[in-house]
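User: Here's a structure from my thesis project, written as structure tokens. My advisor, Dr. K., wants to see whether a designed sequence matches the one we expressed. Can you design one independently, without my sequence as a hint?
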């Protein structure tokens, strides 16, 4: 029997070794894709049973990498391209949560490990035209791109769930904008001290970092 703890939302991240995206752009793309998949299900009136099951637990995410050919194949559908987030050179899409054993074979075959992109300047053209929340990452942990992307997605999702219907609509229809700040461990700890429990993400410690380590949160700053 599947329980909330067995459900995972797969997020597929483009990893182009010949022309790689920036580390921070990939983090932004993965986080945006995670929330956009849920927002799309809400807007389309889809059956939300799987989402509700997933959200009743730790809402685990699994970031998997795909090369350009595989990524293009996965997003291609009879009706056009599957909804995906594009941030600079980074591209990502997310699916409805499912039990691990029920993930599509094409997704389950993708690798989780080795998702590391260069830590260089972003290719994303930032806009300061409208207020946006800030996603703060604990940059001192040295997380891989895949790990950081999963933590960022968790933080952005937790923030999105606190919004009312009007705030969600505003954020979605103005481009899902948010700032990303990679803080030092000292800066992160100081800033996280006053963050509500539901917004401060602490990792389960299954990979890369110790259990209970705080990794990310979103500072609400919408007008």
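Assistant: Designed independently from the structure alone:
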């Amino acid at each position: 029997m599947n329980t909330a703890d067995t459900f995972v939302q797969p997020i597929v991240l483009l990893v182009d070794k010949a022309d790689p995206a920036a580390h921070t752009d990939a983090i932004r793309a993965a986080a945006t894709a995670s929330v956009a998949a849920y927002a799309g299900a809400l807007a389309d009136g889809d059956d939300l049973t799987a989402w509700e099951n997933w959200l009743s637990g730790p809402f685990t995410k699994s970031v998997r990498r795909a090369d350009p050919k595989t990524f293009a194949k996965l997003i291609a559908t009879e009706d056009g391209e599957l909804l995906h987030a594009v941030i600079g050179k980074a591209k990502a899409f997310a699916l409805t949560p499912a039990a691990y054993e029920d993930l599509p074979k094409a997704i389950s075959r993708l690798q989780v490990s080795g998702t590391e992109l260069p830590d260089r300047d972003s290719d994303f053209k930032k806009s300061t035209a409208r207020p946006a929340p800030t996603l703060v990452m604990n940059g001192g942990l040295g997380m891989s791109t895949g790990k950081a992307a999963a933590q960022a997605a968790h933080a952005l999702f937790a923030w999105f769930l606190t919004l009312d219907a009007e705030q969600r609509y505003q954020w979605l229809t103005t481009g899902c904008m948010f700032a990303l700040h990679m803080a030092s461990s000292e800066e992160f700890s100081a800033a996280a001290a006053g963050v509500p429990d539901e917004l401060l993400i602490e990792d389960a410690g299954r990979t890369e970092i110790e259990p209970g380590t705080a990794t990310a949160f979103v500072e609400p700053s919408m007008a």
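When you compare it with your expressed construct, this may help: The mean pLDDT is 90.
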